[in-house]
Every structure is written in C-alpha cells, then in structure tokens.
Amino acid sequence: MNVASRLPNPPAALAERPMQSARESVKPPFLGFGLGLRHQHYDEILNGNPDIDWFEVISENYMLPGGQPLRTLDRICERYPVVMHGVSLSIASTAPPNFGYLQGLKDLAERVEPKWISDHLCWTGVHGKNLHDLLPIPYTNEALDHVVSRVQLVQDFLGRAIVLENVSTYIQFNNSEMTEWEFLSELSRRSGCWLLFDINNVYVSAFNHGYDPLAFLNGIPPDRVVQFHMAGHSHMGTHIIDTHDHPVCEDVWDLYVAAIKRFGRVSTMIERDDNIPPLDELLLEVNRTREIAERVLPQAGKPAG
Amino acid sequence: MSDFARQQADFQRGILTGDDAVLTEILDSPREKRETLYGVYRFAYGSRLVEAMRNDHELLHLYLGDETFDEMGHAYVKARPSEHPNLRWFTQGLPEFLRDAEPYCNHPALSDLAALEKALNDAFDAAEGPVLELTAMSAFAPEAWPDLKFQPHPSAARLDLSTNASAIWLALKNDETPPDAAALDEPSRLLIWRQEVTPMFRELPTEEAMMWDEAANGIPFGVLCEMLATYDDPDSAAARGAGYLHGWITSGLLTAVSA
C-alpha cells in the first residue's frame, strides 16, 4: 500500500508553508542523563518518580489510535522532558516519501511536544515493503544528494530540524566514495539536521569494517551532535551484532570518555531494546554516564534550566 | 531508475528471496566474508518479524510451541511481507492466513485463536471514546425510549468463531491444559472491548448478539424490542432488551445514546 498516493497533492500542501530554515535552527538544549522508556518500567516510573533527567520514547510505539500506551505517555510527559526516536522514517529510502507516516509522526509530536525528533540514517524498504530493519547505504554523492533533499522535505513537513543517528552496519558497499563520518558531517552541514551519536554503533561499525572508532569520532563536527546513545551488543568473534540487549561494555565506556572530550556536554541516555532488566539495573548505567561526564567535564552535570 | 534505487532494490530482493546479485557490490571485511556479513541482515529480517508475531500472539505461540510457531511465522513472513511502517500492524493478516494456507487451514481453531488474540490486541490500543453512564439514560422520558439509538465504544468489536477457540484461549491464559480443538454446531458469538485499559471479551447468547449487531447498525430501541419479540417470549421482550442494554452500559460498551 502506498500511503502517499492517497493524500491529495502533497507537494502543493508543502509549498503553502513558509520554508523553514533548518540550518538556522537553534541547537536543542542539554537535557542531562536519560533513559529509553520501555513498557516494562511504566509502573515503577509512575509510582516512584526515579531520578532520571529525561526519557526517549520510540515514536512508533505511540503512533496508535489510543489506549494504555498513549495514556501512560501523557503521564510521563507531565513529569519528564521527552524526546521522540523513530525507527521507520526510512530517510535514505529511494521509495516515495510516506506522507501518511509523516503526518502520524507530526500528530504525535503535537501531543508529546518533544525536545527533538530523531531517527536513523538508513532505509527500511522500497517497493511498498517494510523490512523493519535499519539498512545500510553506500556513501556516495548520489546517496548524499538524495538524503539531503529527503531530510529537507521532512524538516519542512514537520516544521523543525530533525536529528539523525548513525546505525550499526555489517557490510560496506564497494561504490562508496567517502567515509561514513564524512557523509554524516556533510549531511548535517547541508541539510541542517543535528546528529545523534550512538557510541556503541560507532564501536560496532568500526570493528566490523576494521577502522579506528576514534577516526569516526574525530571526523564528526563537535557542534552538530546533540545526543549520545549508550548500549550493548553481541560479539560474534569476526563481527559484532548490534543487539542493544546487553549492558554497555568497557570499550564503549572508554569511547564515551573520548566522545565527551570531543563533543563536550551532550544529552546522554542508555538505550536497551531487548532483554529488558529491572529499572534499578539501568539506573546504575544512567548514573555512570552522569558520573563520567562530571569527572571529565566538571560543569557537565546539570541540565540547563 | 537511479543507481542508488537499483542498489536498494537488489539489496532488498536479496533479503526477501535469497537472490545473491547484490553480493557483487559488497566488500569482504578484514575478518569475515561478505556472505556472512550480509547474512546478518537476512537472518535478522525473519527473526525480528517472527519475534513480533510471538509478542502479538502469545497464546497461539504457547499452543503451538516454539518450533511449530516459528515455522508458521516464517511461512507468514514469506507469504505476507510487511507493508506498513509500524510493526504493530504486521500480524493483522494472520487469522486470514491461517484460515486459507495449508496446513493450518485444516485446523480451524488456529485461525480462530489468532482472530481472538488480534481482536484483543486491537481493543487494547483502539481509539478513545466517552463511556456512556447509566445516569444518562434517566434523562429520557419513557415515551422517548423507542427512538433511542446507541453508539458502541470505539474499542468494541464482534467476532464469530466456528470452533471452541475461546475455551482454548481461556485455558492457555490460566496455565491449564487446553481442551481438544472442536468445531461448534452453532458459532460462538463474542463481543470484545476495552474496559479502562484492559481488553475484555464475553460470549453472547444468540439473542443478545442479534440485538448488539442491530443496535450497532443504528436500529432504535423500539425496533430492537420488536426483533427480540420474534426470538423468544414477546411479553418479556422489552424487559430482556432493557436488561441487555443495562449490561452494555455498565460494562462500558457504549459511548453515546441519542433520541
């Protein structure tokens, strides 16, 4: 089903909006040290008011008609700053833009009033199919031009700059013309999107493709990064699979220290997607992100305002 | 078609069909061959979707066991690739698939069990709507009652099952041994809805199911009572109708009444 084809003349609808100058957009605020919201922790959060600076919610989990997920989200939003993180924007897909999806995202953003909206630099399908995976792209000029124009379209539709995350990749294409960090930097510079730097994903991709994660880190412009993800993975010996179902490993903690030194004060969160442990266990990791930041950057501890 | 678009089509076809053409555009890594690395995407595709099916159909999974469920899940993934950006809707076609596809179509309780789980999932996150209170009914004078029309709550849905799948569902839910699957002489008529945040279902007597279906179609109370009179004792038809209505309102099944 092509949702876009059911909507009347989307380009005309877009043209009526004043072009938003995403490149001029104000950098999102520092939120402190947060956690990915998971339904297993709903009761504990609502009954306990744990000391977490902010939550990231998976947009698609709440792009629903109604019921308990949205009611719970409303209550979380009353108490904590929230950012929205999607998995289906498919920003790098060569399929036509899905305006039905974008409208759903925009409707949810009106309800949540997130500090920002993020997704991944990847694609999830073409020809009407959705593979529900974060699929890799070649780092070519053709791909860059395509993604820049797609980011601009999405930013115009949403009326705000978006944030894009580097994904873990397992393969590289032989037609790439630049590195992943060159691609991300150029994408951010040309489109005005901000960057979500997933430190685990940098580690995973660097191992899988045999480069130094610090080369990636040092190749990203410091002023474009507004969020860090910290997560765990599964090591297969010859390659690493990004499962986000383990505690953060020591190598990734080391890379976090290097990232703070380069990027300074950045909103940081623990992202566990599977094998969800009790909240207390994740709070230990959240506290460690805070402690390390306070040690490396003594002024880093408190969110602004 | 641009080269980028062509490459994405090849990459996707390699995952969906096992075609290896895209491998010529992928590099070996310093430690691993491209087939293995690309294989991570191939494996993740099926396993992620089957995992989503396990989450949506917990009791069907319990009923079939890991091996049979996953085999069925992979067959479903192959037959009906996801076309919606939200994984929430991927399993919507499962009851229909189980009803039509060999060998599952030979076991109609499977399709019924999936249909019941789907209906409960749909009630869980269905649209919000006001819940009609009993006090609202006292606003109507007796002579207005025959013209009253009722609007079901947005979460309410009807489902007819041809097997004892609701008994199987109940046993699995309670950690009990499910009864043998069996076809029913008369369909089992279920009403599914959400009370506060909890999905519920209840089996309706034939007469009440008829009245619910007609009421949901906008038939006024007076006509509903005339219909009830053809089902059973005409003298008590209005009282039976009022009884069913009372039950619907106190269960939160109605969202509005209008004269």
Give an account of the 3D structure.
The complex is a heterodimer of chains A (305) and B (259). With 305 residues, chain A is of the alpha/beta class. Chain A has a single domain (30-296), classed as Divalent-metal-dependent TIM barrel enzymes (TIM Barrel, Alpha-Beta Barrel). Chain A has helices at residues 10-15, 42-48, 68-79, 99-112, 141-158, 180-191, 199-209, 213-218, 250-263, 279-296, and strands spanning 33-36, 55-58, 82-85, 117-120, 163-165, 194-198, 225-230, 234-235, 240-241, 267-270. Chain A has an eight-stranded parallel barrel. Chain A has a two-stranded antiparallel sheet with strand order 8-9. In chain A, helix 5 runs parallel beside helix 6 (180-191) and helix 9 (250-263) packs across helix 10. The longest helix of chain A is centred in the middle third of the chain and has 18 residues, at 141-158. Mean pLDDT of chain A is 92; it is low at 1-20. Chain B is of the alpha+beta class and 259 residues long. Chain B has two domains: 1-94, no CATH class; 107-259, Outer Surface Protein A, domain 3. Chain B is built from ten helices and five strands, in the order H-H-H-H-H-H-E-E-H-E-E-H-H-H-E. Chain B has a three-stranded antiparallel beta sheet with strand order 2-3-4, sandwiched between helices. Chain B has a two-stranded antiparallel sheet with strand order 1-5. In chain B, a hairpin with a 2-residue loop joins strand 3 and strand 4. The chains are: A alpha/beta (305), B alpha+beta (259).
Task: Please specify the SSE layout and strand pairing.
The complex is a heterodimer of chains A (305) and B (259).
Chain A: H1 10-15, E1 33-36, H2 42-48, E2 55-58, H3 68-79, E3 82-85, H4 99-112, E4 117-120, H5 141-158, E5 163-165, H6 180-191, E6 194-198, H7 199-209, H8 213-218, E7 225-230, E8 234-235, E9 240-241, H9 250-263, E10 267-270, H10 279-296
Parallel strand pairs in A: 1-2, 1-10, 2-3, 3-4, 4-5, 5-6, 6-7, 7-10
Antiparallel strand pairs in A: 8-9
Chain B: H1 3-17, H2 34-56, H3 58-79, H4 94-100, H5 108-124, H6 134-137, E1 149-152, E2 157-163, H7 165-173, E3 183-195, E4 198-204, H8 206-216, H9 221-231, H10 237-250, E5 254-258
Antiparallel strand pairs in B: 1-5, 2-3, 3-4
Helix pairs in contact in B: 2-3, 4-5, 5-7, 8-9, 9-10
